Amino acid sequence: MSRYLARRLWQFVPTLAGVVLLVFFLFNWVGGDPAYLLAGKIASAEHIENIRRGLGVDQPYAVQLWIFVKQVVTADFGASWSTNERVSQIFATRLGPSLTVLVPLLILSTVIAMAAAMLAAYYRGSLTDRAIMIGCTVGQSISILVYILVFQYFFAYRLGWFPVQGWGANLAENLLWYAALPILVGTVVSLAPDIRLYRTFFLDEISQDYVRTARAKGLGEGRVIWLHVLRNAGIPIATNVLTQLPGLLAGAFLIERFFSIPGIGREVILAVERSDFPVIKAVTIYVAIVTMIVNLAADLLYRVLDPRVQLK
Amino acid sequence: MTPWALAWQRFVRDRVGLASAAVVLIFLLMMAASAAGLIVRDWGEEVGMSYAPPGFLKTERIEQAEETAASRPRDDYGIADPLAAELADIQMGTSSAERRAATLPFGADKWGRDVVRKAIKGSETSLVVGLAAAVLAAFLGTLFGALAGYYGRWVDDFFNWLYSVFTAIPYLLLVLAIAAVLGQKGVLTVVLILALTGWTGIFRLVRAEYLKHAVREYVLAADAIGASNARRMFGHILPNVSHVVLVQLSLHVVLFIKAEVILSFLGFGVGVDTVSWGSMLAEAPSELILGMWWQTAAATAVMALAVTAFSLLTDAVRDALDPKLA
To answer: Residue A254: its pLDDT value, please?
Structure first.
């Protein structure tokens, strides 16, 4: 086990090096000279030269790469180009609101999706199953934009059940008042793909021999489904939920943008709109690291939940 | 009977698959006709009044507009309005060459452009982006997967490393980062962004197939009669794994269409002079507040129809090609 862990952690090194190279290639090479961008519309040659020296972009690429590697290792990406806020400060203050939306969203959508998937799998081929599956296909074909627009317009603007947008100062207010509609939208959007996936997990288990054995020895349907099938189908579901997290952290940007939630995703959009390279670079590197760690954690979790799995 | 003929037999028995194939075909024909300039060449013409409502909607707005038009001239305290004639012209919509329509079949946007024609033109853009990006991503994924799975060793290690780097960054974050760097809009840019980031899923599956096939007897036999590596890879193995590529291709069309809509909505996608489903939806927030729902509804409905048809077609093709799954 410890040998496996050491090997996996060692594999982080080339992957992270690749991510650093990719980001460097994109921003320092494809992106061109940021000095013109920073200096504004009316810039003197001297001013541009000063900015270039300050950022180190007048140095050869090898030196620039070394500066970037130092930034990654020391976790110090400097200050945002547009607001001059420290990048580390941006992360520290934006993570809380993101998680306030994401954690309830993941829990809610997982529970509902599991229930619907179990129903569809248990009554496979029936009208219930077909209705759920058609609903999922149609639901998945509508853009997330439309869900956000329509929910915000209808439930917040027209009916006034929720605030249209905004964010408060304390957790309870945020969670129960401001985050409620974003969580609802996010849940509805993630339901369709989740149900489809979890249904296949349940189907895999329901057709297994141990289910037939459990039924043959006279166990009630409730016990077969809730104890035997659920516990086994729960293993891939748990790892799937875990691996979704990093993608959601940056992927919830549409929800955060529409509802003015000061989270990581909204920060990404703002940074892209303002060509705020330090922030985008930092987000990309950090989210990549989180993704790698979470993927490892998911594999370990799989091992814990299912001791038959051999990690090599 | 060839496996393809057997798959075709299974496919034509699938009614849902046939229906979705018909819808997809209609969309593709529409796209081709629109791209060739046979239909909706005049989508940008301002044929209606600003936010002209759909014809089937008898709103008070129209009556109000007619009322105010009828109630003039009013008493202006004896002061003659020097612009009265021009104003009347503008109000009546006679200043332009032809009179603007008060209603259109499915309404008009802010500039008075017909929503139906705009939606057809937008379908062309969105479908072209989705198809082109999917073809390019499938090409890259197949090429990389074939090389990695066939040659193994350091080639495999290299492409696996590339794969792990690209998948370590969440897809949309990578897309946005590249969009930020490129900083230019346009159909070609979007296609390149989506394809260069979207090949990973196809690579993984194709590589696994090549690993399996590279040691099969028919490939060893091809080696024995002197077929070159390239010939074994693409002449012998590729036809046997092409069903995987085909299903992935169709799956990625849906994926890329959705991504293009989000990119264009955020303003990083197609240019301002191009219309796509995403750029139509980008006008939705300000329109919904005013109660003008028709453009949003049209873009949503057309996109949902196209994407549902593509998804169902993908399912049907997969079921037909791989009977073990069904």
So the answer is: 85
Give yes or no for a contact between A276 and A82, defined as CB atoms under 8 angstroms apart: yes
Question: What is the rounded CA–CA span in Å between residue B76 and residue B70?
Answer: 16
For A44, residues 6+ apart whose C-beta sits below 8 A from its C-beta are: none
Q: Could you report the per-residue pLDDT of B223-264, keeping only the tens digit for each?
A: 889 888 888 888 888 888 888 888 888 889 988 998 888 888
The span from the CA of A71 to the CA of B194, in Å, is 29
pTM for this entry = 0.82
Determine how many CB atoms are found less than 10 A away from the CB of residue B289: 10
| pLDDT at position B326 | 44
φ, ψ for residue A120, nearest 5 deg: -65, -40
Q: When comparing pLDDT for A36 and B279, which is higher?
A: B279
Mutate to test the interface with A, among B20, B167, B169 (most CBs of A within 10 A): B169
Given a cut of 60, whether residue B68 has pLDDT beyond it is: no
User: Distance between CA atoms of A299 and A5, rounded to whole angstroms?
Assistant: 10
Q: Give me the residue from A11, A157, A284 closest to B169, CB to CB.
A: A284
Q: pLDDT tens-digit profile of A102-123?
A: 888 889 999 999 999 988 888 8
- Give the residue carrying structure tokens 């002449």: B235
Predicted pLDDT of residue A308: 77
**Cβ(A264)–Cβ(A95) under 8 Å?**
yes
Q: Do A141 and B308 touch (CB under 8 A)?
A: yes
CA distances from B89 to B79, B81, B86, B116 (A): 20, 14, 5, 27
Interface subset of A 99-158, CB within 8 angstroms of B: 137-138, 140-146, 149, 153, 157
- Give whole-number Cα distances, A65 to A288, B168, B182, in Å: 18, 20, 20
- Spatial distance between the Cα atoms of A18 and B166, rounded to a whole number of angstroms: 9
Q: Does B325 touch chain A if contact means CB atoms closer than 8 Å?
A: no
Q: What is the mean pLDDT of residues B202-216?
A: 87
> Is B184 within 8 Å of chain A by CB?
no
How far is A151 from B281, CA to CA, in rounded Å? 14
pLDDT at B277: 85
* CB proximity under 8 Å: A 179-208 to B: none
Farthest-apart Cα atoms in chain A, separation: 86
Closest CB to A268: pick one of B173, B281, B312.
B173
- Given a cut of 70, the residues of chain A with pLDDT beneath it are 30-43, 57, 250-251, 311-312
- The Cα-based distances of A214 to A159, A206, A228, A233, B96 in angstroms read 50, 11, 8, 16, 79
Which residues make Cβ contacts (< 8 Å) with residue B98, sequence separation at least 6?
Answer: none
Nearest residue to B126 via CA among B194, B56, B203, B179: B194
